[in-house]
Fold this protein.
Amino acid sequence: MKGQTYLKNVVTLELNADKCNGCGMCAIVCPHNVFEIKNRKAKIIDKDACMECGACEMNCDQKAVTVRSGVGCAAGIMIGALGGTGPCCGPNTEDTKAKSCCEKSKNKCC
Ligand code: SF4
Ligand code: SF4
């Protein structure tokens, strides 16, 4: 998938290029083409397209990628769809993972 972005500059994805061995797994598993491999190193080319699914971190043997999966706008969209409330990251709920997105971005959706 390409082209979908969420809020800008709120994604928790981080890449430590020093640990990367260029295996390419992150680029293979990422559904939003966030990574490219150049000169045997991963590079983040579209950070705002990351939906924080966690697949890259789970598949990186070198622990070069970190991301807080289950938070952020993608999670808010899923929470809203499942609860029938529309997109909402749930600052008024007891879900502390969901709260962190709003606290970080200062966006109050509900
Ligand atoms: S999966 Fe990890 S080690 Fe492999 S290319 Fe991506 S960041 Fe580098
Ligand atoms: S968390 Fe998911 S969408 Fe984001 S970079 Fe990793 S694999 Fe791609």
Q: What stands out?
A: The mean pLDDT is 78. The radius of gyration is 15 Å. Residues 72-101 form one domain. The helical segments are 25-29, 55-59, 72-83, 96-105.
